[in-house]
Structure to design on (391 residues):
């Protein structure tokens, strides 16, 4: 078999990703129109843009979640964030999808903040730093609009007391050879990272463990996170818990092409939630597009939205409805709208969004603290919130 031209793991995303091929390689399922129609029906509302526009394109066992939803049985949501710096707009996608599920199905939501994982990942990170980013990132996540009564947070270095017994059970079932093969770790990898995948499994099982009955879990996440959950799914049955279901998104492109990444040196490559208006305006102005070399050519031949970082922002976040999304796409393809005009329109949408987001997040500091799961000294039960009343 020829070597693939791209690499996708939780710790490395590189090359031009062929998403259909990636689905084959990972052995995940196509998120086809039938499942989407079923979901729309169960939700009793139109699908959110991330689903209707194909940003989420692959899944594992979504049918099991649909059965629960259709039978009005509980399931819960889980997603997370490795805090190494400020968040950008693409980082909100899984949380926006979670919020939609929470609203439509009154589902509980667990957010994991993996300050330990990020600390272990890069030699240059300090623990105080990943911790502080964890708190800041959590505010951005909560600003998406979760219901505090149904939302709890595993903040790894603070919540370890509530997580550890379950992590111990999980860790015993993961041979070192699996971690080495799945993540491609060299033997120089620190043992924190080798253990870490056990912690990412914990939220998947936590409600089942606490309530003593199976509670299905749905994880919206980037497809790069799938390898962790392959391990989780493989050991779930042996521990007597349901396998978590997944919804996978494509990796959203950066403004200069490539993955929208915050760990690269290229701060111009992403639109950060804390960018000041001038910065956001400049980045959008310089963004990579699918335009032609000259205005004349573009008017005549049109542009290519599929390769454009600006179109990707319209698609995932900023086109407010289907009609607007179709108009942007059509006028781009036909050459009726040039890139400068498109960027100007998007900027007008982005600046108020960033301002509103900033205002919302600042009010959430006390809420964030109250949602973090922590175990009281000398006790085995959690303070800090849960258990969320059994779903
Ligand atoms: N490992 C993820 C990251 O580096 C963080 C994370 C933890 C996560 N739990 C998750 C992501 C569940 C998606 C779903 O960003």
């Amino acid at each position: 078999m020829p070597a693939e031209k791209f690499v996708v793991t939780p710790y490395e995303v590189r090359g031009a990703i062929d998403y259909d091929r990636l689905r084959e390689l990972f052995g995940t399922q196509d998120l086809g129109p039938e499942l989407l129609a079923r979901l729309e029906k169960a939700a009793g509302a139109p699908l959110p843009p991330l689903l209707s526009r194909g940003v989420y394109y692959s899944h594992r066992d979504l049918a099991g979640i649909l059965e629960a939803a259709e039978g009005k049985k509980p399931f819960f949501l889980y997603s997370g964030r490795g805090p190494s710096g400020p968040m950008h707009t693409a980082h909100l996608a899984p949380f926006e999808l979670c919020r939609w599920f929470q609203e439509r199905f009154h589902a509980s939501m667990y957010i994991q903040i993996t300050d330990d994982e990020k600390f272990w990942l890069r030699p240059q990170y300090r623990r105080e730093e990943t911790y502080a980013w964890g708190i800041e990132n959590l505010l951005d996540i909560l600003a998406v609009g979760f219901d505090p009564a149904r939302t709890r947070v595993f903040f790894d270095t603070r919540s370890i007391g509530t997580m550890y017994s379950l992590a111990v059970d999980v860790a015993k079932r993961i041979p070192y050879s699996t971690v080495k093969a799945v993540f491609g770790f060299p033997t120089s990898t620190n043992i924190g990272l080798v253990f870490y995948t056990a912690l990412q499994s914990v939220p998947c099982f936590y409600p089942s463990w606490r309530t003593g009955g199976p509670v299905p879990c749905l994880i919206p996440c980037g497809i790069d996170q799938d390898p962790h959950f392959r391990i989780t799914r493989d050991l779930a049955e042996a521990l007597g818990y349901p396998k978590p279901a997944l919804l996978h998104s494509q990796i959203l492109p950066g403004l200069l092409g490539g993955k929208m990444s915050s760990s690269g040196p290229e701060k111009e490559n992403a639109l950060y939630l804390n960018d000041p208006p001038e910065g956001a305006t400049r980045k959008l102005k310089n963004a990579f597009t699918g335009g032609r070399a000259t205005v004349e050519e573009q008017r005549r031949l049109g542009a290519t939205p599929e390769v454009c970082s600006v179109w990707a922002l319209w698609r995932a976040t900023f086109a407010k409805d289907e009609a607007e999304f179709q108009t942007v796409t059509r006028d781009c393809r036909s050459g009726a709208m040039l890139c400068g005009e498109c960027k100007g329109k998007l900027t007008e949408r982005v600046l108020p969004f960033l301002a509103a987001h900033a205002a919302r997040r600042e009010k959430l500091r006390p809420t964030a603290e109250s949602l973090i799961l922590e175990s009281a000294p000398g006790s085995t039960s959690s303070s800090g919130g849960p258990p969320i009343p059994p779903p």
